[in-house]
């Protein structure tokens, strides 16, 4: 008779995540029943001692073998953190102790990186750390805003409520990000498809027509000659065009990530593009409103909250504006007046903030602002999706149709002379 036991309780946990290793073990319990499982531990000897303490006589304890591909697992995404937050909030509100909740969540993870991270957090908490201290060891996955909210929740003794707020916040923000990506994806795909189709025609189709034109013994129309010259260049130097395109994309990404001035310039340009700019503006306002409301409701001081909010808007233009608001609020200005001075926030948003301050319900008003602008983003993205299909048809029609007309112009000219 055999049985499989899920991960036994880990060894004493005053350790860092980097010290943990994954082991597989086999053994027998006091009844002689064969057991096997998988467990993280600092080393094999500590795992054997832990198994014996639980009444299991280990026969095999060895490091878990790693597959050739994908052994590290996928990167931890914001959606993973959102789902983790929701699970934590649900279990803690149901009365499950935090260590048990982390053990359950870690045991259900298929991504090794996520599993190891959750295991490390659980180990730190078992060793006496707070949740804030445990997640602070993972600043990439848990940003400053997340950590500040958890710290405020632990300090006020309402951690489960704050985790529920964080889960709602993360889910809303990720849904909004998905809408923005969808809005940006369509125009990018239109341009990419148009360029690929044009390149295929120039490299493979136009040269066939050129061979036919050589037998005409007459000068080609200027438009046709332009297409033929472009085709010759593409056939001869396609590799240079490819390298230049890849290099330009790489240089653009590098400059955007490394140069704050270039990032600010590009973000400002994007905000002025018709339709796309409106979506990006509304998205930044929605993120600002929801993030500020969540942090303020959790008990984080407003100035400190604004410092965390600045990086959550997704736009360097709004980030600088919010940092300016933070500085103004720190010296005594009302939030609505500081917002008005930036010339970025619509009159309605400023007035809602003013009403919220006067009524002592700033977080409630900002939640309403967030909901309104998130709905505006949804509507704008849906409208863009309905407009983009005819736009794709027009762009491809102009490019492909232009080349087809250019190739047939000599034939039409020849037919008119007969």
UniProtKB/TrEMBL annotation:
Transmembrane segments: 185-206, 236-256, 392-412
Subcellular location field: Cell inner membrane
Record InterPro entries: GspF/PilC, T2SS_GspF_dom, T2SS_GspF_sf
Keyword set, alphabetical order: Cell inner membrane, Cell membrane, Membrane, Transmembrane, Transmembrane helix
Principal subcellular localisation of the protein: membrane
Record's bilayer topology term: Multi-pass membrane protein
Family that this chain belongs to: Belongs to the GSP F family.
Protein name (Swiss-Prot/TrEMBL): Type IV pilus assembly protein PilC
Organism, scientific name: Pseudoxanthomonas taiwanensis J19
């Amino acid at each position: 008779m055999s049985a499989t036991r899920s991960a036994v309780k880990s060894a004493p946990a005053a350790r860092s995540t980097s010290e943990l290793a994954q082991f597989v073990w086999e053994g027998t319990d006091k009844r002689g029943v064969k057991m096997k499982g998988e467990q993280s531990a600092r080393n094999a000897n500590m795992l054997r001692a832990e198994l014996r303490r639980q009444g299991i006589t280990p026969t095999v304890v060895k490091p878990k073998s790693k597959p050739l591909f994908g052994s590290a697992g996928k990167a931890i995404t914001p959606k993973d953190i959102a789902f983790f937050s929701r699970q934590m909030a649900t279990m803690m509100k149901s009365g499950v102790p935090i260590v048990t909740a982390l053990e359950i969540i870690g045991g259900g993870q298929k991504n090794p990186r996520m599993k190891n991270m959750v295991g490390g957090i659980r180990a730190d908490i078992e060793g006496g750390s707070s949740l804030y201290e445990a997640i602070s060891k993972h600043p990439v996955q848990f940003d400053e805003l997340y950590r500040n909210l958890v710290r405020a929740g632990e300090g006020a003794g309402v951690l489960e409520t704050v985790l529920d707020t964080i889960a709602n916040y993360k889910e809303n923000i990720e849904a909004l990000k998905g809408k923005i990506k969808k809005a940006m994806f369509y125009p990018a795909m239109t341009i990419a498809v148009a360029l690929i189709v044009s390149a295929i025609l120039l490299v493979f189709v136009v040269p066939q027509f050129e061979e036919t034109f050589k037998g005409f013994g007459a000068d080609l129309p200027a438009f046709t000659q332009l297409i033929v010259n472009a085709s010759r260049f593409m056939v001869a130097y396609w590799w240079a065009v490819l390298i230049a395109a890849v290099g330009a994309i790489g240089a653009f990404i590098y400059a955007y990530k490394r140069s704050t001035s270039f990032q600010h310039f590009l973000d400002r340009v994007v905000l002025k593009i018709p339709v796309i700019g409106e979506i990006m503006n509304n998205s930044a306002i929605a993120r600002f409103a929801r993030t500020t409301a969540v942090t303020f409701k959790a008990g984080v001081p407003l100035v400190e909250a604004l410092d965390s909010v600045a990086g959550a808007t997704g736009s360097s233009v709004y980030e600088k504006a919010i940092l300016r608001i933070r500085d103004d609020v720190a010296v005594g200005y009302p939030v609505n007046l500081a917002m008005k001075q930036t010339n970025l926030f619509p009159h309605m948003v400023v007035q809602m903030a003013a009403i919220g301050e006067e009524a002592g319900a700033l977080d409630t008003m900002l939640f309403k602002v967030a909901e309104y602008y998130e709905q505006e983003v949804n509507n704008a993205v849906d409208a863009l999706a309905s407009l983009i299909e005819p736009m794709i048809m027009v762009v491809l029609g102009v490019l492909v149709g232009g080349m087809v007309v250019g190739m047939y112009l000599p034939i039409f000219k020849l037919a008119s002379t007969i």
